[in-house]
Amino acid sequence: MKPQRPRIPRRALHGVLLLDKPLGWTSNDALQKAKGMLRAEKGGHTGTLDPLATGLLPLCFGAATKFSQVSLDADKRYLATLRLGQRTTTGDAEGEVIEEHPVAVDRTAIEAACARFLGVIAQIPPMHSALKHQGKALYEYARAGVEIARESRRVSIHRLDIVAWQDETLVIDVVCSKGTYIRTLAEDIGQALGCGAHLSALRRTACGPLDIAQAVTLEALQAMDEATREAQLQPADALVAAWPEVRLPDDEAGRFLTGLRRRVAMADAPAVRVYGTHPPAFLGTAHITAGELIADRLLSPIEVQGTT
Questions:
Q1: Catalytic positions
Q2: Residue 51's domain spans which residues?
């Protein structure tokens, strides 16, 4: 009987790890690997990044998990590589080629096609996606050869810039709202060009205020000692760094943490981040209505101490 390896004790750890997810890994696999290396008790990711995609995957640990929805709802930025002239069964490089056409386009035509998708557009979610229908992911139906009717969704393409184009390869830089399917965008651009296209590579470069330049790879994390790994964590309020800030004196901060509304001399705001003064600790998030600061998501006193 093989001896069992001793279990590594977990610990309460609070913060956000900006991970550069490798190709071929699921978001959950990457989370579990990082969680194990950090010995974190509690953790979650902020939205699935497909195995085909690489790039920014914010991971939340401890108190930071309370604010993960902010990252889920945030705008995203992607560097997408399109293979023009080919359509596949899945809309990406993992599927079989089902149509092939010559690529007879110029820069002007590509610019015009991309411009058509700026602003608010309607997208039909792809069958090969994790979107659920009657409790099952659409890709499960697709693998069984079953087509499910899907309603179109409204998404926003804020920016769509051409980074590079040569022959059948087109690289675009996309800033979009949550829920945007880049593989669907790739197929739609191909259709607009008249030659078809599929997504051959995808890299997420930003999520709200968080940028890939701040991210660390699993390989780099593996090579670090524990103290250096922990130093990679950003504070829990990194997810709400773009929100207006409210600072409360010590007595008001204590009352706010119990859920009591506080009077503040500030204009109405749908979302603010709240701090104490001594120390300047992050307390949670709130909104302001008619001069009242109303708590939304609060840290516990223990979590406040753990994040300072």
A1: 50
A2: 15-74+210-238
